[in-house]
Amino acid sequence: MSIGENVMLEEVKRKINSLEYDFLKTNEHLGKNIILLGLGGSYAYGTNTPESDLDIRGIALNTKREILDGKYLDKNNQPIPEFYGMVDEFEKKLNYAAKNTELPDKPDYKRIDEFIASVNERVIRGELNNGDV
């Protein structure tokens, strides 16, 4: 990662952890249900300026309660059409993310391990609560 990319990453982290984006943690439908966050707009293309807003794209799962309390089941405990609609939406979002996200052919396991170690260290120090990453 270049110095410029590292600076941008730190800026994005700062913005996401600001009060303006607190809804990502506190909204009951987001928070622990977020499975993917990505960037859109100028940050995604590396053309951001100090005045640029931060466009976040993401995918969140339905809450356990929504899935398990029968919301998507009929009187015979069979999935209702809305369940299949939800699955179709997940598939569309996953396909969109696959088409619009550049992932390396081979993951950088060293960076992944370093990131995991840094998160674990921050949790142990009490700097992170559940869902703060």
Explain the layout of strands and helices:
Layout: H1 3-16, H2 23-26, E1 34-40, H3 41-45, E2 55-60, H4 64-68, H5 81-100, H6 109-124
Antiparallel strand pairs: 1-2
Describe this structure in words.
With 133 residues, the protein is mostly helical. The protein has a domain at 1-61. It is 48% helix and 10% strand. It contains 6 helices and 2 strands; from the N terminus they run ααβαβααα. The chain has a two-stranded antiparallel sheet with strand order 1-2. The longest helix is centred in the last third of the chain and has 20 residues, at 81-100. It is globular, with a radius of gyration of 18 Å. The mean pLDDT is 80.
Looking at this protein, list some descriptive labels.
133 residues, mainly alpha, two-stranded antiparallel sheet, 6 helices, 2 strands, globular
Envelope shape: globular
Helix content: 40-55%
Instruction: Name the strands of the widest sheet in spatial order.
Output: 1-2
Radius of gyration: 18 Å
Mean pLDDT: 80
The ordered string of helix (H) and strand (E) elements is HHEHEHHH
Distance between the termini: 20 Å
Q: Show unreliable segments.
A: none
Determine the number of helices (DSSP H or I, runs of at least 4 residues): 6
Backbone structural class: mainly alpha
